[in-house]
Amino acid sequence: MALRGNLRDFTVTQLLNLVHLARKTGMLSIQGTNEQADIFFREGKLAYARTNKEDDHLAYVLYKTNVLSKAQYKAIASRAQGMSDKELGLLLINAGYVTQEVIINSLQQYFADIIRRLFTWAEGLFNFENDARPPADRITVRLDLENIIIEGARQLREMEQLMQEIPSLDIALKFTDRPGTNLRNVNLSVEEWRVVSYVSPKNTLRQIARAANLSDLEIRRIVYGLLQAGLVEMVRPELTPRTLDRSKMFPVQDKGEQRTLVNRLIDRIRSL
Amino acid sequence: MQTVKMVVTGPFSAGKTQFIQSVSEIDVVATERKISKADEKAIKNATTVAMDFGRITVDDDLVLYLFGTPGQKRFDFMWEILAEGMLGFIVMVDSTRPETFREARTILETFRAYAPTPYVVAANKQDMPDAWDVDDMRVALRLGQNTKLLPCVATDKESVKQVLLELLYSILEEMER
Ligand SMILES: Nc1nc2c(ncn2[C@@H]2O[C@H](COP(=O)(O)OP(=O)(O)OP(=O)(O)O)[C@@H](O)[C@H]2O)c(=O)[nH]1
Ligand SMILES: [Mg+2]
Fold first, then answer.
1. Does A248 sit within 8 Å of B139, measured CB to CB?
2. Which of A31-40, B45-54, B164-173 has the highest mean pLDDT?
3. Interface ipTM
4. For residues A235 and A233, what is the distance between their CA atoms, to the nearest angstrom?
5. Which residue ranges make up each domain of chain B?
């Protein structure tokens, strides 16, 4: 089924978060005001990216990431026409010109730069096509999205949106117990680390902000990044008593009678 | 006569009135009003102003009332009044309009703050071709695995019954704790 909408309402960071958490495979296409980007994912990791504004062949990527000079790029582009990226990559490696790591690093850098550009798009229609794969002759990577997501969240400067995302500072955080999330693999800033060190269902965001000497805006921005990266989730603070005033909910006060009443409701609804 | 109530809430045009209408034995009390703002009008023509109100008679001395909240934000003050004494609540979300997911979450949090009663979330309009998958919605709405997120088609009575039943099961479970 469709995963479709507009960046106005659903940011790139949120989309990456969705792909990351749901370990999706497929292609995210975004039609911006004057550029179109396709980002491919495999099991929640970045595999490949391209835009309609730039050549997406390996030679160009190596040129853009300063591995090849302009002259070398032009020479390859004219002489190696019709050669697939995989063939070209092998050729360059066999010639001792680059290592496999250099190629992978260049691709990762280039793809991540495309995504960074997407963060600045205020609008654009997006569509996720499940299971779509990158062109077969291209070299793909497997890049964890966490760092890119945190970077994107850092760019979310508007207080208004942060207020909507985190309306109250009287909530607490806990670490998600999702397998595969490893804090050590994430590049956190000093402030982010400080917040992380206070994460506990016992501490409200207000308390953490005070302890870490952060403003309301700063704590929201940092927590938003951690949430989007799937590292933490919001929970009700443990100390808040959860009082449920049943006397107002039910016309009867005896607990057994209340249970009977709910069962009567269940029977009635089943029979509708 | 004893009465109990449940609240059906959610963003503008999520299907709250439709949901109540599908199971209510009375016509949903007409508090709908013509829409004036152009962009909202593009979505539909009438919106609920005060509240929807549906009734299910259980037996001789028990009645369940279903109250819908008005979907447009400027009527927020009604919510707290509605929330008072509810058995539980249902958050309706239009699965075809991701632009409303964020607001749905805010509404959910607001109602949870009024009263820590059980609740379920209904991913409505699952019959539409551009409806989001329930699994994707769970992530987008940031619902934990313990929160019931149910596929729903508010125009289909059986589907509405299922959502109501799940809420009642949650209420029973809550009482056991
Ligand atoms: N296809 C489809 N349409 C639905 C469904 N539920 C509601 N609708 C339609 O969606 C529109 C909005 O439904 P309403 O029930 O008026 O929504 P509401 O939440 O009461 O709206 P407000 O009171 O204005 O906030 C109407 O045109 C309904 O017919 C559904 O499950 N499937
Ligand atoms: Mg309505």
1. no
2. B164-173
3. 0.85
4. 6
5. 2-176
